[in-house]
Amino acid sequence: MSSDLKIFSGGANLQLATQICETLGLGLSRLAVSRFSNDNLFVQIRENVREKDVFVVQPFTAPVGDTIMELFIIMDALRSASARRITAVIPYFSYARSDKKDAPRISITGRLMADLIRTAGADRVLTMDLHSDAVHGFFSIPVDHLTAIPYFVEHFRERLDLDNAVVVATDAGGAKRAGRLAQRLHLPMAIIDKRRVADTEVVQGLVVGEVKGRDAIIFEDEISTGGTLAASVKTLAAAGVKSIHVGATHGVLCGPAVNRLVDSPIESVAVTDTVHVPREKQADKIHTLSVAPLFAEAIRRIHTGESVGALFD
Ligand code: R5P
Fold it and tell me: Ligand 1: which residue has its CA nearest to atom 5?
């Protein structure tokens, strides 16, 4: 790989950044992050980046404010150090969930973040499975939007007998995403009617589509508190499904999520490593699929000017 390409990582997912570098046969470039006694962050780039094509890996994981600020300061330092091009690699863009004005006097924070990422120095963004496709349009710089669907297709083909399966979206907003998986697996799909009543609470009702006696594959962009899945399991059980499996790109797994999954009748859960799953959140039924090879290939193509879209043909 060309010596013009450099990959840095913030502290959010060093494991993923390291695997991306290993796939590309590169070492992770060096930087130092520390804090002053007043809690201000301090970043120093520890190698020459003048005229280099630089990628910074930083998914927006907890503590999200600190993680985002760290990315901004790293990019600003790289720009000051004369990097030729800076790509913000944000495998999980958490603020994509804030994508519309659905209450009075609120911020569409996904849009604000897109503006700030550019202001901090990003020339382009590389991300994966945004909560909604519309978020792509919040950015005024080029965005390459990857999907982990090929990994889930392979995972479910290998693990499950798909003869009697159905892909399920937990709400109408996720229907497009679930439809894409269903299409790739040549399966029918169903949609649950969901309403979110609070950050941690959802209510569900009817299922649109045939699920009785079938093996349900719930497909989501993320598992946060697991509240949506807990409600979905009840709805699907009442509708007479035979078994329930789950695929979700971002395993955020906050608060009660892991216990909810472990204690539920869900037979298996697959997430990717866009968000690092620490040992204490691992469980027998939770499988982690690594998307490092896909990010590595996308970075290689961006660097050499090849098509990234062609990755999904
Ligand atoms: C919401 O619309 C998303 O697609 C997910 O269903 C949601 O983010 C999951 O959050 P939680 O696990 O907290 O229900």
Answer: 222
